[in-house]
Amino acid sequence: MIAGIPITRILQISPTFDFLMLLSIFALGVMIERWNNYRKMKADPQRFMERIKMSIGQGKIQEALFYCEQTGNSLSNVVKVGLQNYKLSKDAVFELLEGARMLERLHLEKWLTVLGTLGNSAPFIGLFGTVLGIIRAFGDLARSGSSDPKAVMLGISEALVATAAGLFVAIPCAVMYNYFMNQVKRFAVEMEVASKELVVFMSERERLSEKKETPGF
Fold it and tell me: What does the alpha-carbon distance between residue 155 and residue 195 come to, in Å, rounded to a whole number?
Protein backbone atom coordinates (compact mmCIF):
# COMPACT_ATOMS: atom_id res chain seq x y z
CA MET A 1 0.00 0.00 0.00
CA ILE A 2 1.04 3.61 -0.65
CA ALA A 3 -0.36 6.23 1.75
CA GLY A 4 -3.13 3.79 2.69
CA ILE A 5 -4.12 3.18 -0.94
CA PRO A 6 -3.76 -0.37 -2.33
CA ILE A 7 -1.05 -0.57 -4.99
CA THR A 8 -3.39 -2.51 -7.29
CA ARG A 9 -5.88 0.36 -7.28
CA ILE A 10 -3.15 2.89 -8.07
CA LEU A 11 -1.97 0.79 -10.98
CA GLN A 12 -5.52 0.61 -12.30
CA ILE A 13 -6.42 4.30 -12.03
CA SER A 14 -3.08 6.00 -12.78
CA PRO A 15 -1.36 5.27 -16.10
CA THR A 16 1.14 7.98 -15.17
CA PHE A 17 2.16 6.01 -12.10
CA ASP A 18 2.64 2.89 -14.23
CA PHE A 19 4.78 4.85 -16.69
CA LEU A 20 6.94 6.28 -13.89
CA MET A 21 7.50 2.81 -12.42
CA LEU A 22 8.70 1.59 -15.82
CA LEU A 23 11.03 4.58 -16.02
CA SER A 24 12.37 3.81 -12.54
CA ILE A 25 13.24 0.25 -13.60
CA PHE A 26 14.99 1.55 -16.71
CA ALA A 27 16.87 4.17 -14.66
CA LEU A 28 17.97 1.51 -12.18
CA GLY A 29 19.35 -0.56 -15.04
CA VAL A 30 21.33 2.45 -16.30
CA MET A 31 22.73 3.10 -12.82
CA ILE A 32 23.88 -0.50 -12.40
CA GLU A 33 25.46 -0.59 -15.88
CA ARG A 34 27.34 2.68 -15.39
CA TRP A 35 28.43 1.74 -11.85
CA ASN A 36 29.94 -1.54 -13.06
CA ASN A 37 31.54 0.18 -16.05
CA TYR A 38 33.23 2.89 -13.98
CA ARG A 39 34.29 0.39 -11.33
CA LYS A 40 36.16 -1.64 -13.93
CA MET A 41 37.88 1.49 -15.27
CA LYS A 42 39.34 2.58 -11.96
CA ALA A 43 43.13 2.26 -11.86
CA ASP A 44 46.18 4.02 -10.48
CA PRO A 45 47.14 6.42 -13.31
CA GLN A 46 50.55 7.19 -11.80
CA ARG A 47 51.50 3.54 -11.56
CA PHE A 48 50.19 2.92 -15.06
CA MET A 49 52.24 5.76 -16.57
CA GLU A 50 55.38 4.67 -14.73
CA ARG A 51 55.05 1.24 -16.33
CA ILE A 52 54.46 2.80 -19.76
CA LYS A 53 57.45 5.17 -19.46
CA MET A 54 59.69 2.35 -18.30
CA SER A 55 58.81 0.31 -21.39
CA ILE A 56 59.29 3.31 -23.68
CA GLY A 57 62.62 4.14 -22.05
CA GLN A 58 63.79 0.61 -22.83
CA GLY A 59 62.58 0.94 -26.39
CA LYS A 60 59.88 -1.69 -25.88
CA ILE A 61 56.91 -0.01 -27.55
CA GLN A 62 55.17 -3.32 -28.21
CA GLU A 63 55.43 -4.20 -24.55
CA ALA A 64 53.81 -0.89 -23.64
CA LEU A 65 51.04 -1.52 -26.18
CA PHE A 66 50.45 -4.98 -24.75
CA TYR A 67 50.16 -3.50 -21.27
CA CYS A 68 47.57 -1.02 -22.55
CA GLU A 69 45.60 -3.88 -24.05
CA GLN A 70 45.70 -5.74 -20.75
CA THR A 71 44.59 -2.71 -18.74
CA GLY A 72 41.64 -2.04 -21.04
CA ASN A 73 40.27 1.21 -19.57
CA SER A 74 39.77 4.70 -21.00
CA LEU A 75 43.21 5.87 -19.88
CA SER A 76 45.00 2.96 -21.53
CA ASN A 77 42.95 3.39 -24.72
CA VAL A 78 44.10 6.99 -25.04
CA VAL A 79 47.75 6.18 -24.30
CA LYS A 80 47.61 3.34 -26.82
CA VAL A 81 46.76 5.82 -29.58
CA GLY A 82 49.88 7.83 -28.73
CA LEU A 83 52.06 4.72 -28.72
CA GLN A 84 50.69 3.50 -32.04
CA ASN A 85 51.64 6.83 -33.65
CA TYR A 86 54.89 7.58 -31.82
CA LYS A 87 56.78 8.09 -35.10
CA LEU A 88 54.65 11.09 -36.02
CA SER A 89 55.41 14.66 -35.02
CA LYS A 90 54.69 15.92 -31.53
CA ASP A 91 51.81 18.09 -32.74
CA ALA A 92 50.27 15.24 -34.72
CA VAL A 93 50.44 12.86 -31.76
CA PHE A 94 48.90 15.49 -29.48
CA GLU A 95 46.00 16.00 -31.92
CA LEU A 96 45.40 12.27 -32.13
CA LEU A 97 45.43 12.00 -28.35
CA GLU A 98 42.92 14.80 -28.08
CA GLY A 99 40.61 13.02 -30.52
CA ALA A 100 40.98 9.78 -28.56
CA ARG A 101 40.06 11.58 -25.33
CA MET A 102 36.93 12.99 -26.94
CA LEU A 103 35.83 9.53 -28.10
CA GLU A 104 36.49 8.04 -24.66
CA ARG A 105 34.50 10.81 -22.99
CA LEU A 106 31.54 10.02 -25.24
CA HIS A 107 31.80 6.40 -24.13
CA LEU A 108 32.02 7.43 -20.47
CA GLU A 109 28.93 9.65 -20.74
CA LYS A 110 26.87 6.92 -22.40
CA TRP A 111 23.34 6.72 -20.93
CA LEU A 112 23.98 9.61 -18.51
CA THR A 113 21.61 11.84 -20.47
CA VAL A 114 18.86 9.37 -19.50
CA LEU A 115 19.48 9.99 -15.81
CA GLY A 116 19.79 13.74 -16.31
CA THR A 117 16.57 13.89 -18.30
CA LEU A 118 14.62 11.79 -15.77
CA GLY A 119 16.02 13.83 -12.89
CA ASN A 120 14.58 16.97 -14.48
CA SER A 121 11.38 15.71 -16.06
CA ALA A 122 10.05 12.98 -13.74
CA PRO A 123 8.53 15.48 -11.24
CA PHE A 124 6.66 17.17 -14.08
CA ILE A 125 5.40 13.81 -15.35
CA GLY A 126 4.15 13.07 -11.84
CA LEU A 127 2.53 16.49 -11.58
CA PHE A 128 0.82 15.91 -14.90
CA GLY A 129 -0.60 12.66 -13.54
CA THR A 130 -1.78 14.46 -10.42
CA VAL A 131 -3.60 17.12 -12.44
CA LEU A 132 -5.32 14.43 -14.51
CA GLY A 133 -6.27 12.60 -11.32
CA ILE A 134 -7.80 15.70 -9.74
CA ILE A 135 -9.76 16.43 -12.91
CA ARG A 136 -11.06 12.86 -12.88
CA ALA A 137 -11.93 13.07 -9.15
CA PHE A 138 -14.04 16.20 -9.61
CA GLY A 139 -15.59 14.76 -12.74
CA ASP A 140 -16.62 11.61 -10.85
CA LEU A 141 -18.00 13.79 -8.04
CA ALA A 142 -20.08 15.84 -10.47
CA ARG A 143 -21.47 12.76 -12.19
CA SER A 144 -22.39 11.08 -8.92
CA GLY A 145 -24.08 14.21 -7.56
CA SER A 146 -22.64 13.46 -4.12
CA SER A 147 -21.53 16.22 -1.77
CA ASP A 148 -19.47 13.93 0.46
CA PRO A 149 -16.01 15.57 0.87
CA LYS A 150 -14.48 12.17 1.64
CA ALA A 151 -14.99 11.08 -1.95
CA VAL A 152 -13.18 14.16 -3.20
CA MET A 153 -10.31 13.75 -0.74
CA LEU A 154 -9.88 10.09 -1.68
CA GLY A 155 -9.64 11.01 -5.35
CA ILE A 156 -7.13 13.78 -4.64
CA SER A 157 -5.01 11.52 -2.43
CA GLU A 158 -4.90 8.95 -5.21
CA ALA A 159 -3.92 11.66 -7.68
CA LEU A 160 -1.11 12.94 -5.45
CA VAL A 161 0.53 9.52 -5.53
CA ALA A 162 1.66 10.35 -9.07
CA THR A 163 3.57 13.40 -7.80
CA ALA A 164 5.20 11.28 -5.11
CA ALA A 165 6.15 8.71 -7.75
CA GLY A 166 7.71 11.44 -9.88
CA LEU A 167 9.89 12.56 -6.98
CA PHE A 168 10.70 8.93 -6.19
CA VAL A 169 12.14 8.56 -9.68
CA ALA A 170 13.73 12.00 -9.98
CA ILE A 171 15.72 12.22 -6.73
CA PRO A 172 17.89 9.08 -7.21
CA CYS A 173 18.37 9.94 -10.90
CA ALA A 174 19.59 13.46 -10.07
CA VAL A 175 21.92 12.22 -7.33
CA MET A 176 23.46 9.45 -9.44
CA TYR A 177 23.74 11.73 -12.48
CA ASN A 178 25.84 14.20 -10.48
CA TYR A 179 27.93 11.39 -9.01
CA PHE A 180 28.61 9.80 -12.39
CA MET A 181 29.44 13.15 -14.00
CA ASN A 182 32.04 13.73 -11.29
CA GLN A 183 33.51 10.34 -12.15
CA VAL A 184 33.62 11.29 -15.83
CA LYS A 185 35.40 14.57 -15.01
CA ARG A 186 37.97 12.68 -12.95
CA PHE A 187 38.61 10.21 -15.75
CA ALA A 188 38.87 13.11 -18.23
CA VAL A 189 41.51 14.85 -16.11
CA GLU A 190 43.50 11.62 -15.77
CA MET A 191 43.43 11.12 -19.55
CA GLU A 192 44.53 14.68 -20.26
CA VAL A 193 47.39 14.55 -17.76
CA ALA A 194 48.54 11.18 -19.10
CA SER A 195 48.40 12.46 -22.69
CA LYS A 196 50.60 15.46 -21.92
CA GLU A 197 52.97 13.33 -19.87
CA LEU A 198 53.29 10.81 -22.70
CA VAL A 199 53.96 13.45 -25.36
CA VAL A 200 56.58 15.22 -23.23
CA PHE A 201 58.32 11.98 -22.31
CA MET A 202 58.42 10.67 -25.89
CA SER A 203 59.62 14.04 -27.22
CA GLU A 204 62.37 14.24 -24.62
CA ARG A 205 63.45 10.69 -25.33
CA GLU A 206 63.61 11.43 -29.05
CA ARG A 207 65.62 14.61 -28.40
CA LEU A 208 68.14 12.73 -26.27
CA SER A 209 68.45 10.01 -28.88
CA GLU A 210 69.19 12.57 -31.60
CA LYS A 211 71.71 14.27 -29.33
CA LYS A 212 73.62 11.02 -28.82
CA GLU A 213 73.69 10.38 -32.56
CA THR A 214 75.01 13.87 -33.34
CA PRO A 215 78.85 13.91 -33.86
CA GLY A 216 80.77 15.74 -31.16
CA PHE A 217 78.62 14.47 -28.29
Answer: 61
